[in-house]
């Protein structure tokens, strides 16, 4: 593909609405080639660990991510090469054996909590957005989502939140907002923000 791929990064707290914003943008660009990749696909392989050990991993610390592979993939997409994105299983706390083949589309939206922490990774994005959603709303949404879709119970969500999710947000994620081009309040249903982002992406694509 000769056309340059625009790489968009959406960061913010867990359950702040990153995926919803990305999915909304994909729908708005209906006829064009836009796709989404989750940073969660780049959690390190944990096949060598037992399930008891995997449960104890701090999934909100940058060390839990294979950011080397993510950076390599960002560079490959920019060079017009396709990538094989690992598939992640939250119930197993591990990558599966499957991958998703992703072609260098016109626009690729990456969403993830730690995307703006590593300088080389954040600089690979043409546009950087940060979801500014109050933490109490994020926790309420995370409780519902993790129990319904990620195989968790209320006690495990709350104890993980207190032990790692909130402290790592304070240490790494919240400070990384300074690297965003645009800070988005009111989550993934903020239609004015969506319209502004669409206009900017259109101007970069054309
Ligand atoms: N503005 C919103 N209003 C209502 N529910 C929302 C809103 N934004 C996100 N959600 C819901 O909250 C949950 C977490 O949102 P999601 O986009 O998956 O967060 P993230 O990708 O940041 O972890 C999902 O179930 C989603 O549908
Ligand atoms: N095995 C795992 C892997 C990740 N998490 C949590 O996911 C959150 C990031 O994903 P979002 O879609 O919420 O942005 C992160 O806060 C991790 O705690 C997990 O619980 N288990």
Description:
Residues 8-193 form the Phosphoribulokinase/uridine kinase domain. It is an enzyme of class 2 (transferase). It holds the Pfam family PRK. Pathway: Pyrimidine metabolism; UMP biosynthesis via salvage pathway; UMP from uridine: step 1/1; Pyrimidine metabolism; CTP biosynthesis via salvage pathway; CTP from cytidine: step 1/3. The protein has 206 residues and is an alpha/beta fold. The protein has a single domain (6-205), classed as P-loop containing nucleotide triphosphate hydrolases (Rossmann fold). Helix content is 40%, strand content 21%. The chain contains 7 helices and 7 strands, in the order βαβααβββαβααβα. It has helices at 18-28, 51-55, 67-78, 119-123, 135-149, 154-173, 191-205; strands spanning 6-12, 34-38, 83-89, 94-102, 107-111, 127-132, 182-185. It has a 5-stranded parallel sheet, sandwiched between helices. Strands 3-4 form a two-stranded antiparallel ribbon. The longest helix is centred in the C-terminal third of the chain and has 20 residues, at 154-173. The chain is globular, with a radius of gyration of 17 Å. Adenosine-5'-diphosphate binds next to helix 1 and helix 5.
The overall number of domains is: 1
Mean pLDDT: 95
Sheet with most strands: 5 strands, parallel
Number of helices: 7
Please provide the ordered H/E string of secondary-structure elements: EHEHHEEEHEHHEH
Please state how the strands of the largest beta sheet are arranged side by side.
Answer: 2-5-1-6-7
Report the strand count: 7
| End-to-end gap | 15 Å
EC number: 2.7.1.48
Pathway: Pyrimidine metabolism; UMP biosynthesis via salvage pathway; UMP from uridine: step 1/1; Pyrimidine metabolism; CTP biosynthesis via salvage pathway; CTP from cytidine: step 1/3
Binding site for ATP: 12-19
GO molecular function: uridine kinase activity
